[in-house]
């Protein structure tokens, strides 16, 4: 399971290991003893005069600790063993990573992708197929263009 999670997350985590500390949470993100904490990373990212070359140094090396006894991890392992290329398994791993980021005090780099994964999981939980979601959008009338809107946009660009 650790190898699968590391493969999916790639460079987002330094390593994935089974934790002996976690009891209720399925996973958590921790930084090294000498690395920046989540709060320090947030403070440094918010500095007004920071150098863009420092951004590589600002990201702390994160270790994802997983709770092997948690039911979510047990079920995810069985689904991952059945099919490692399953998109749902990958989405669930990313959701676990993103929620671990939030609960560990870090900020999300791509909140729209996080929201998209949440929506896909809600659809899955409600047994809504992707085809049904596309059909719902088909009921909407097509967008109407206003005559001269393109000309007006060109004029606005000329002013800029």
Report on this model:
By secondary structure, the chain is mostly helical. It has 8 helices and 3 strands, in the order H-E-E-H-H-E-H-H-H-H-H. It has a 3-stranded mixed sheet, with helices on one face. Helix 5 crosses helix 6. The chain is globular and about 45 Å long. About 3% of the residues have low confidence.
Secondary structure blueprint with pairings:
Blueprint: H1 2-9, E1 15-18, E2 27-31, H2 38-45, H3 55-58, E3 62-66, H4 71-82, H5 87-103, H6 111-125, H7 130-138, H8 149-159
Parallel strand pairs: 1-3
Antiparallel strand pairs: 2-3
What keywords describe this structure?
mainly alpha, 160 residues, 8 helices, 9% strand
Q: What's the alpha carbon Rg, rounded to whole Å?
A: 21 Å
Provide a count of the helices. Answer: 8
Number of β-strand runs: 3
Strand order of the largest sheet: 1-3-2
Helix/strand/pairing category: mainly alpha
Q: Report on the biggest sheet.
A: 3 strands, mixed
Q: Strand share of the residues?
A: 5-15%
């Amino acid at each position: 399971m650790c190898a699968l999670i590391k493969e999916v997350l790639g460079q987002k985590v330094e390593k994935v290991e089974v934790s002996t500390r976690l009891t209720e949470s399925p996973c958590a993100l921790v930084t090294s003893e000498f690395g920046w904490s989540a709060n320090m990373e947030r403070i440094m990212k918010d500095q007004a005069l920071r150098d863009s070359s420092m951004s590589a140094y600002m990201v702390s090396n994160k270790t994802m600790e997983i709770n092997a006894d948690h039911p979510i991890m047990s079920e995810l392992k069985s689904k991952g063993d059945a099919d490692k290329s399953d998109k749902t398994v990958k989405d669930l791993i990313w959701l676990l990573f993103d929620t671990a980021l939030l609960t560990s005090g870090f900020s999300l780099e791509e909140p729209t992708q996080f929201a998209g994964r949440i929506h896909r999981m809600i659809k899955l939980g409600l047994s809504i197929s992707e085809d049904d979601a596309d059909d719902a959008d088909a009921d909407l009338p097509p967008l109407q263009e206003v005559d001269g809107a393109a000309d007006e946009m060109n004029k606005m660009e000329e002013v800029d």
